[in-house]
Design brief:
CATH superfamily of the largest domain: P-loop containing nucleotide triphosphate hydrolases
Number of domains: 6
CATH architecture of the largest domain: 3-Layer(aba) Sandwich
Strand order of the largest sheet: 14-15-13-16-17-12-18
Largest sheet: 7 strands, parallel
Distance between the termini: 60 Å
Structural class: alpha/beta
Helix content: 25-40%
Shape: globular
Number of strands: 34
């Protein structure tokens, strides 16, 4: 060994690590000399934190400087052979920590799949392999763990440490994870089973040429078996492993012939675990032709990218934005880059996923919360290794380890689903994506038929490029829209349950022509509240300050905030009256009432309750797409990216519930939702029709939706926001202060607001009670920081963090909980 290399190995190194905990500062650990050569930024290391807890932490920086105020503990071991986090990701985490006023551990917890965050309490379990694909060699310690797992269903990492009599067990567990022998249990109640697939292999005896000739002579008398054998030889030349199903499809020989070959020991069948991630054909079919308007928009986007990093594509619904995205993705891939395609809710945009997969096949990956932890780690590694060139994902996909990112597409950029509500970091994925693109020197396309006011403001102000498409693809006309006054219909006694005579008439005509209907009601459940007609009692949640919603399918009253539920009531517990009435209505009630009017029609419901299972949503959408279902009733889920060629009628049951919500964005959101729902109609050859039912049928927003006057809505909203100092003219930070003791909370919130006022003065509003002032037994008070453009936002956040740390250091307020929400819109 060279002298300088030996000296480097004897240097004392210190590393700053990020722990998956909400800590105000990162910790510094010392590296044992023997591990110096394995240290690199982005690798995981095993550390002890606190008295007995052991975690895997991420290396953020490496230095030779010891911490000044405490003695650094030694790290226990290094987990990874190579970094699992890129430098750009760490920069994104830094930005997120500062911008959203949270801790870096919060960002790490949100970013990393659970399978990469091992801790001493982490549970590992044995995979139930039917037959191992190949003989694997295990060390004595790995065998000891496997034997223990064969006799016990689960072990914690602490158990493994006790079993082996050592602390450094993480690399051993990591090795077993890599070999596919164990998995990280997500919950004790969930039992993971790997997806097993049957494969066929040829008996090695027939690899000898003479034996093969004799086999052909025998099989000539069994033509079906010969077909199967020939199909195997053909497929095995192209790929190493031949699946049983593939062989049956290729040979068309039937299961009997294949069984005969297995019985004769010509073929051997074995099972092996396969990836649950769907594989696709790698054929690139990119020969579709853009319309004149699409081609013009594509050229304008390319031109916009010369001067701007972000371009807003404002195209009416069904204008063919997806095909423009595909052309841009193709260009990025040709340059050797990776692409991130963000969707508001991946489960709701199955059709877009399928459409894009049709073009980019095996180069594409999908990432969202429906995947379990094991699948998420698999996707993470494929992005890191560059196998996936295109990733389609929900908001959490911004955290993936891209190395060659060239383009980010944010589809339906106005969607509120891009905003993380809980827990911290409460980030806006659209804004995070723009910063991520800046780090990678990539370009961003924001696409929407109804852009967020902030995005449109930035585009008109020259910060973003702006490209507009005003016509639908194929020259299809925008849907014909009509407003029906519920008040007038009720007066004339023409309402049938919740449906106007016009809506019933249009539904009947649509069904007669073999076409489909979507009905929109933005409340789930059966009845919004139950109320006693005698004394006015309404059952409330025991944990939250909200009324319970009646769900007929379960026969129970449910809280939509904490999940609490109880049996329904027929007798008022307050006064004993039997006159308990149902007020308000949700999708369940609409479905029931409509099935009475159209008893022979197949009706489905699309809401959170009907899509709780992993494939529930896919099944509902598939049945509707295959025309097995004639009418689809849904909440705002039906507005997000769905594209059905046979839908010609959209009905909005009650538009007033959107318009009357107490929020400065209520009118903007109402316009977006109504315009998006309307956009689901007549997306192919035939012009669609939209019926909007409302009490306030002359409302400005409804008229703007009908006239497709986005710019008019934008100008009216902007004038109002300028006058009342709302975004984009100011910046908002919401501070929710929570505690189980209402009196202590009142004192704490007043003191905290006063402390902030000494620094920020008139910019502090509150404390006030929010709309829902108790959730999960925590009382809530809200303080709002409203800062104008002349105020430095980083300075405001710095003051907020300092005051908060000082406040929480006081003994009486240590138990008070803070939730910071920057840009709460």
């Amino acid at each position: 060994m060279f002298e300088d290399e030996e000296f480097a190995e004897r240097e004392t190194l210190f590393i700053e690590v990020i722990l998956p905990l909400s800590l105000a500062k990162n910790y510094i650990y010392r590296v044992p000399f023997e591990l110096n050569g394995q240290i690199a930024v982005g690798k995981r290391v095993v550390v002890q934190f606190g008295k007995n807890k052991i975690y895997t932490a991420l290396i953020k920086t490496v230095s030779k400087e010891a911490p000044g105020v405490y003695e650094a503990k030694y790290i226990i071991d290094v987990v990874d052979a190579y970094p699992i986090i890129t430098l750009e990701q760490l920069e994104l985490w830094d930005w997120m920590t500062a911008y959203y006023v949270c801790n870096e551990g919060d960002v790490m917890s949100a970013a990393l799949p659970a399978g990469l965050k091992l801790a001493s309490e982490t549970i590992i379990a044995l995979k139930e392999l039917v037959q191992e694909e190949e003989v694997q060699v295990f060390t004595d310690k790995e065998e000891a763990i496997l034997n223990a797992l064969r006799s016990r269903p689960r072990l914690t990492i602490d158990d493994v440490s006790a079993l082996l009599g050592q602390k450094t067990v993480y690399p051993i567990i990591n090795s077993l994870l890599d070999k596919g022998m164990v998995y990280i249990a997500e919950e004790v109640v969930e039992k993971y089973k790997p997806l097993m697939k049957s494969f066929v292999s040829l008996n090695p005896f027939y690899q000898d040429e003479e034996n093969l000739k004799q086999l052909f002579a025998v099989l000539e008398r069994a033509p079906k078996q010969l077909d199967a054998f020939m199909a195997y030889l053909k497929v095995s030349k192209q790929q190493q492993m031949v699946s049983k199903q593939q062989l049956l499809d290729e040979s068309n020989c039937g299961a009997g012939a294949l069984k005969a070959l297995i019985d004769k020991e010509i073929f051997t069948v074995y099972k092996r675990p396969v990836s649950r991630l769907k594989e696709y054909s790698d054929d690139f079919i990119l020969n579709f032709k853009l319309s004149e308007a699409q081609d013009k928009a594509l050229k304008e986007i390319e031109q916009g990218f010369v001067e701007k990093d972000v371009v807003l594509l404002h195209g009416v619904t069904a204008s063919g934005k997806t095909q423009i995205y595909i052309k841009l993705i193709e260009q990025a891939i040709e340059k050797g880059g990776q692409v991130l395609f963000l969707l508001p809710e991946i489960a709701l945009t199955t059709q877009i996923v399928e459409r894009i997969q049709r073009y980019f096949g095996d180069a594409i990956g999908v990432y969202h919360s429906k995947f379990n932890n094991n699948e998420r780690v698999e996707i993470w590694n494929k992005v890191l290794n560059g196998k996936y060139r295109v990733v389609l994902g929900a908001r959490s996909a911004v955290f993936l380890p891209f190395k060659e990112l060239k383009l980010i597409v944010v589809d339906e950029e106005h969607e509120s689903s891009y905003k993380q509500q809980d827990p911290a970091p409460r980030y806006q994925a659209r804004d995070a994506a723009i910063y991520l693109a800046y780090l990678h020197k990539a370009k961003v396309v924001l696409g929407s038929a109804t852009p967020a006011i902030e995005s449109y403001f930035n585009a008109l102000g020259g910060k973003y490029g702006l490209v507009t498409i005003t016509e639908r693809f194929g020259g299809v006309a925008l849907p014909e829209q009509e407003v029906i006054s519920i008040s007038e219909e009720t007066k004339r006694k023409k309402m049938v349950s919740y449906f106007s005579s016009k809506l019933i008439e249009e539904i009947s005509a649509t069904l007669e022509q073999g076409e489909q209907v979507i009905l929109f009601q933005n409340r789930r459940g059966y009845a919004t509240i139950l109320i006693c007609a005698t004394c006015g009692y309404a059952p409330k949640c025991v944990n939250c300050d909200v009324s319970l919603t009646y769900h007929k399918t379960s026969g129970k009253l449910h809280c939509h905030y904490c999940g609490y539920h109880q049996s329904s009531i027929n007798i008022c517990p307050a006064c004993g009256s039997v006159h308990v009435e149902q007020k308000g209505f949700g999708t369940e009630r609409v479905e029931e009432e409509l099935s009475l009017i159209f008893p022979d029609v197949k009706i489905s419901r699309l809401d959170v309750d009907s899509t709780r299972t992993k494939n529930g949503l896919q099944q509902i959408i598939s049945e509707f797409q295959e025309k097995k279902t004639a009418i689809l009733i849904g909440t705002q889920m039906v507005a997000k990216g769905l594209d059905f060629d046979n839908v010609t009628l959209i009905g909005v049951i009650n538009a007033d519930t959107l318009l009357n919500y107490p929020d400065f964005r209520a009118f903007e959101r109402s316009y977006q939702l109504l315009a998006q729902v309307a956009g689901r109609a007549g997306r192919r050859d035939k012009q669609g029709k939209v019926i909007i039912q409302a009490y306030d049928d002359n409302h400005r927003i409804i008229n703007q939706v009908i006239g497709n006057h986005y710019e008019e809505m934008y100008r009216a909203e902007l004038n109002e926001r300028r006058e009342f100092k709302y975004p984009p003219f100011t910046r908002l930070i919401f501070i929710n202060i929570r505690h189980k003791d209402a009196d202590l909370l009142n004192i704490a919130s007043k003191e905290f607001a006063n402390s902030l006022r000494t620094h920020l003065g008139y910019r502090i509003l509150g404390p006030e009670q929010p709309l829902v002032s108790r959730v999960r037994n925590y009382y809530i008070k809200q303080i709002i920081i409203k800062s104008d453009k002349s105020t430095s936002l980083p300075k405001v956040k710095s003051i907020l963090k300092e005051v908060m740390l000082q406040f929480q250091s006081e003994k009486e307020f240590r138990s008070v909980n803070f939730q910071i929400d920057v840009d709460p819109y």
